[in-house]
Each structure stands twice: as structure tokens, then as C-alpha cells.
Amino acid sequence: MTRYVHNFYAGPGKLPGSVLERIRDELTDYRGTGLSVLEISHRASPVLELLERTEEKLRRLMGLAGDDAVLFLQGGGSLQFVMIPMNLSAPADAVDYADTGYWAAKALDAARSLGRDVHVAGRDHGAIPSALDIRSDTRYLHICTNNTVVGTQWQVMPESPVPLVADMSSDILSRNVDTGRFALMYAHAQKTIGTAGVTVVVVPRKTQEMIQSNLPPFFDYRTHAAAGSNYHTPPVFAVYVVECMLDWLEQEVGGLQVMEALNRKKAALLYETLDASALFHCPVPSDSRSMMNVVFDAVDPERVPVFCQEAREAGLLGLEGHRSRGGFRASLYNAVGLEDVEVLSGFIADFDRRYG
Ligand SMILES: *Cc1c(COP(=O)(O)O)cnc(C)c1O
Known about the structure:
Order of helices and strands: EHHEHEHEEEEEEEHHHHEEHEEH
Distance between the termini: 35 Å
CATH class of the largest domain: Alpha Beta
Strand content: 15-25%
Number of domains: 2
Shape: globular
Strand order of the largest sheet: 2-10-9-8-5-3-4
CATH topology of the largest domain: Aspartate Aminotransferase, domain 2
Bound molecules: pyridoxal-5'-phosphate
Number of strands: 14
């Protein structure tokens, strides 16, 4: 019998048990083909239909416009750090970035490495900046909607007079967002909507008109849009897992509104527990706190090893903070249940009673 564990890893993150069971059940015979989804040609109709259906479901859940291109690419969030400046700006062009943490900083470093004139419109790794200084001649403003490492999240998206580009890798489809405000959105799947290997990129019609000419075809979003994400072999299995996750979100959870309400409840419970704790504290101010990644520290560093060991023994996994900041982090992605957060909150409160 497998021991029941609570998965708080930051990424790849938890998948729902029912999704894992579906993948297992369908693994050797995909939709009556007699083949596994792992071994079907990407030019054959079952895979073409998989790409179409998954795109269709994403359009519906994200509320996308009919002429937005929805792409399934490889290379993770990290390749998008490079493709965005390549597609939306020429080498010496002005581009603005909000530097709100580890990944946001990597994104702006990539633009800088390509020779772009990068301006940091706001920098804060402990909270969401209250105002941004955006240049008027800039090609776009890049933000990271949820800062996975430092535990902050844009609770209200910033006003932007220039095209707004967003890395939604760690909060896509965790809450309702007005997607019409964005000039480009991207998210790898492995945190909230699937597993590693595929990155969803949404490129609206107007943004496609901004794309530079003479890019190598592979790096040009239009190549992948024209080919229906089948310009080269797409990551078929990872797309299949995304489809399973979207079905789960729509049919089992009951849609994005219900998902958001549940995510709010999970995060509120854990933050309340931390705010009441004598041994732990969350350094993030409440107007910047992330619903997805709850970052916290021990008041007394001597308690850290014993907390980690006892948590592991209790089946609470993945609570170590990112290697760049230490401390603790509990990732409460879509698949993490309220019951998982109740167990963690109970464990923290009990630890407080025993050692506080
Ligand atoms: C995890 C993460 C990334 C890194 O993505 P890779 O797929 O590992 O390249 C980028 N952005 C954000 C916000 C992340 O959380």
C-alpha cells in the first residue's frame, strides 16, 4: 500500500489522483486506437484531434478571443524569456520589465543578453511594486503574475499604456483573469495545468502584427501558429496531460470560479495559521501574498532541521524554500486539496504548541 503523502512541491507540482488514474487507465489504449498516446505519430488524426481539443478547452477556460493564437511549445518558461524579446522587439529597442523576483529577473536578463535596451519599471522581491515607471516608447512591459520563489502575486494587474506581456507559469488557470488585457501570455504546464514538457503561449492577433521579420522560423511564433503547433514534433504526452487537467478543472472541480474560490480558501487558511504562529512568520505583506506559493520563515533558525524532519515523517513533502532564499515554501497549486492544507496548518499549529 502506498503511504498517503501531501505534495507541496513548487514544480513540477501535484497532479490530482483522478488525473493520474485516468492516465494509467488510458496509457496502453488511447481512445480505442490500440496504441498508447506515447507512440502515435504527431501527423496522425488522434494527435491532431488532441491538439485541437486541448486548444479549444484552453480557449474556453481562459476566455480567449477567436483570433488569439494558442501555441504548445517546448523549451519551458525559459525559452519564452528569449522568444519574447526576439519576436516583439528589434535588437536595440526599448523594453520594460517589472523585476519582482527570481524568474522575472531571469526574463529581463535574457532580454538584456539579446542587446535590448532593458528598463526596470519597478523592482521589489519582497512585495508587488505599488507603482511602475513605464517608458512611453517601450515595445512592451513584461510582468510575472505570480512570483514562485518569493511568494508574491499581482492581486490586481498593473495598468499598462504599452502592450502587457505576462509570465503566468505558476498561476495560469488558478483564478479568473481578464485575458483580454494582455498582448501575450505564457505558462509552462508543470505547475498548475499539467506536467513538464509543454509551454502554452497565447499570441493575440494584434501582437502577431508586431513580430519582427527575418527570425529563424523555429523562433517565430507565426511558424507554430500556421502549423497548428505541429511544425516539429510537439510534446504529445505533455499536451495529453494538459487535456486531462483541463477536463478535471471543468468537470470535476466545476470550472474556474470554483477553482479560484477553493484556492482562496486554501491560501487564507495557511496564512492565518502562520500569522497566529509564534515560531513561523510570513514576510510578505498581505496585499502582495501569493495564493499559489506561501513562503515562510522560522523565527529561530535552530528549529528548521527538526521542522523539516518531522514534516517529512508526517508525509508533508516539498516544503523547503527555493535554494536562492532558503526558509520554507508551501506550493498550493490547483491539484492541492483543502484537506492537504488543513493537514499542513494543523501540523504547524501543533508544532507551535509543542515547541513554542
Ligand atoms: C518555474 C518557473 C519558470 C521556469 O520555467 P522552466 O519551464 O523551468 O523553464 C519560469 N517562470 C516562472 C514564473 C516559474 O515559476
